[in-house]
Amino acid sequence: MSRIYLHPLPVRMWHWLNAACFFVLILTGAQIRYRGLLDLMLFQTAVDIHNIAGFSLIGLFIVWAVYYIASGTMKVYIPDLNIRRSVENSWKQARYYGYGIFVGEPNPHHATPDHKFNPMQQFAYFSIMFFLMPILIATGVLLWDLDRFASFIDAVGGIKAVSAAHLLVTICFVAFLFVHVYLTTLGRTPLEHIKAMFTGYEEEPEQGH
Over the stretch 152-192, which tens digit does the pLDDT of each residue have? Predict the structure, then answer.
């Protein structure tokens, strides 16, 4: 086994703050949208907290982008542009998750600081950070001040279209969170990957073992 410093401190801080923002946004968003069914807090309180968490998420997204661009490590999120190789490696990883892990086969992906994510993770994180997150932020800002952005909201299909897009992306994020939490339990021990997001270190088997 080799001990690898996989998650620098800024990444770990961003990860947990981001998770906290999402938890608050999901909780308050559910209260705002389903105020007739839920009674978690006062409606205006939910709106105020949702707005604070939303703008905090925007700030964290900017910090994420600046950090990865400045450190030259944004490439860890970029999928392999060789389509054939990407498909083959994704299939190997999918087979491992669906079969290999249950029969004791080694993980085909060996994480390094420059290649942290397996092909399936790269595709998922790329889609989230470069596509879904911008949509979530844009629709959230529009819904934050309907009067100020009324003309733009009308131009993109109206309030129902913006609200539906915001909800749809939120559902995608919630679904991802369930999958993400499950995948964190697939290390050598159920808490191995979670522990690494506190310490920064993961243990990886030596190549060829």
Answer: 999 999 999 999 999 999 999 999 999 999 999 988 888 99
User: What pTM value is reported for the model?
Assistant: 0.90
Q: Which residues contact 107 (CB under 8 A, 6 or more apart)?
A: 96, 100, 101, 118
Candidate CATH numbers 1.20.950.20, 3.40.50.150, 1.10.275.10, 2.30.40.10; the one for domain 2-204: 1.20.950.20
Separation between Cα atoms, residue 98 and residue 11, nearest integer Å: 29
End-to-end CA distance of the chain: 9
Query: Residue 201 belongs to what H/E stretch?
Result: strand 201-204
Task: Answer whether 131's CB lies under 8 Å from 139's CB.
Answer: no
Render pLDDT for 31-65 as a digit per residue (tens, 0 to 9): 998 887 778 888 999 999 999 999 999 999 999 99
d(CA 169, CA 157): 17
For the stretch 57-90, pLDDT in tens is: 999 999 999 999 999 999 999 999 898 999 999 9
